[in-house]
Amino acid sequence: MKQLIETIVKPLVDYPGDVRVEMDEHDNRIIYNLSVNPDDMGKVIGKQGRVAKAIRTIVYSAAGSHHGKKVYIAIID
What we know:
Oligomer: single chain
Strand content: 25-35%
Helix content: 25-40%
Number of strands: 3
Structural class: alpha+beta
Order of helices and strands: HEEHHE
CATH architecture: 2-Layer Sandwich
């Protein structure tokens, strides 16, 4: 899942080397923390959050029922 997020986000940004995805796993959920260069934040979020919503939709669909855990993506400043 981490690789999927990187594959989606890196072509969108000007600084692909600064893209970081960290997984934080809890009892009933998995949170992927996405960090990008501050100059690229607007590109990842998009107008009215449309790009971020599209990224989340793809990842949620790919995750399905990931061992009974809910998958979330957090975009970190």
